[in-house]
Batch of 3 targets.
Target 1
Amino acid sequence: MIFDLDGTLWDSVEPVVSAWNSVLQTKGHPLTIEKMKSLMGKTLSEIAAVLLPDLSDTQAMSVMEECCRATDTLLSQQGGQLYDGMEETLSALQKHYALYLVSNCSTGYLDAFFQAHGLQKYFSDSETNGRTGRSKAENIRLVMKRNHLNKAVYVGDTESDRIAAQTAGLPFIYAAYGFGKPKSFQAVIHSPQELPVVVQTLLDENNTPVDSP
């Protein structure tokens, strides 16, 4: 099982907006919570193009990197909001499936997530756009190749997650409690606690075993 991060495992919007505004307000580009929610799941370069269209690519990415440093520091100290029952769900799933994490975030952001909440022990491997510079679909394939996975499912919350899963050839489980509204999905959950039953049902329907730990 491969997971997205934002809108799937946690909600970090409020501290991220606070950290980013410590930088963006000095540049004349304040950020709202609603705007940040609409950007969740995008790569840093995509976010830079939306928030800082008046700057050159180099200038915009420099500002984004400053935002990321502020975010990583804040999140590593105070964390975000894990969705209810998330750790218990991961613990239950780990008994039957190998768990992985693929996100479009920076490496420092993922490290901050793990440091703040201590969930790294549940994941066999992870990959980020910040580390590889690759698309989410490419990183999903990379994790599968690196860990010799023949089958998997992807759990996420946005249309870009659905596209990544489809491009990588995986069934997509939509986390409806997250930020987005994908056009389609193979299964849906409304809380993390629903995931063990839903993933087993999906696999039974598709006769698709996933790699176990």
Note: DSSP finds ten helices and eight strands in the chain.
Target 2
Amino acid sequence: MTTINKNDFVEIEFTGKANNEVFDTTDKEVAKKMGLEYDVTPLIISVGNQMLLKSFDDFLEGKEIGKKYSLKLTPEKAFGKRNPSMIKTMPIKVFHEKEINPYPGMAVQLDNYIAKVLSVSGGRVSVDFNNPLAGKDIEYDFTIKRKVEDDTERVNALQEFFFKQKFEFVIKGEGKDKKVIFKKPEIKPFVDIFKPKFNAMTGLDFDVEEKSEKKEVKEEKKE
């Protein structure tokens, strides 16, 4: 029997429901029944490192691989209660300046926040900045498919979550001397920010390949 501990990387298949309606899934069968066209795959995460909703993440520790689990969360433990002060009334010109014609139910991005348009009337727009899942009971059905030991898979999982894209890298060294070296010098400042966190999560060192300076060789013409 293999149980899961903090910092373990695992592949997890789950379906999240809000008031019995699916809002997220990595289960192909569930996605197929919903008629989703995009390809879904199990997610690889590092346990205890907030790569999932905190209450869900905390629940994973001590669980067994291959066993089916169900977790029910109240709004307080999930996405919080709805906050009336997060509903704002804004002049419609704010939207027109961004070339947006608002209508009820429309999702919009304002000041780096995603909001939902509730109503449009008399040149004013009522907008809800609450998380769409706020105030709802949440349930997760999940299975931990396997523990991920491969370093390449673990690094790619971190890239997908924190970088939102994948950069080419190589892994050099053995044992405690293993080092992940990204081959794109331009991302060094970004990697330096995450290096301590990534090291704590994987036990690997992280660095970026230095720029190779081209040396121009001048040849003197012989007369």
Note: The radius of gyration is 24 Å.
Target 3
Amino acid sequence: MRLVGHPVRWQLLGELARSDRQVRELTALVGQRQSLTSYHLGQLRAAGLVTMRRSSADGRDTYCSLNLALYRERLAETGAALHPGLRLVPAALTPPAGGPGRPPAQSPVRVLFLCTGNSARSQMAEAILARLGGSRIEAASAGSHPKDLHPDAVRVMRERGVDISGARSKHLREFVEQRFDYVISLCDRVREVCPEFPGPPAMVHWSIPDPAAEAAAGQPSHPAFVRTADELNTRIQFLLYAIEHFQASSERS
């Protein structure tokens, strides 16, 4: 708790809970010098709560991501260490009530995933969200430079019981006049060229490496696709919790 109790680190965690951010973006958001921001990010990184990745769009930039699953575990451990009566048992990472077969309480939440080729990450994300979100969610995906669906994306999703072999790669211009509640970019490059959408929607970035790059480097790509699917699955489950919380708050107000 001492680690996250510092006001700057707490502010950084709050920003990263909403979206992956570049270090320079976080510096502006917290209103501190970059050296101080980098110091506090280093503390969070040393604890495993924050990871950093070089931007695939510009190697001079670094994206920071919050490990929500680990943060959740640490909060539970902290409660137990303070007093047995404060033991916080994390709920299983399963989607909130209202999955497949249950009618939505209101209009479906529309989510658009974007990457460059719409051949792997965004297609997998669309399929995972559609399965976990059920009738409450309307998921879609597109790319700035669409190309054929990657066979390992099809294979990994089939291993998880989802068939995306018939999915079509789509250009993001097919969706620019549509309204979405969330537009989530999964690729650093597409974030740089992402157009404005009506609404506007909540713009979120998840800096996830292209699993197909493993094959381009001469390595088997299937393990990279498995890791990508695992990361997407975790992030999407937390997204569903956020959507559920927002809807419940809206209903109360």
Note: Residues 93-97 have pLDDT under 50 and may be disordered.
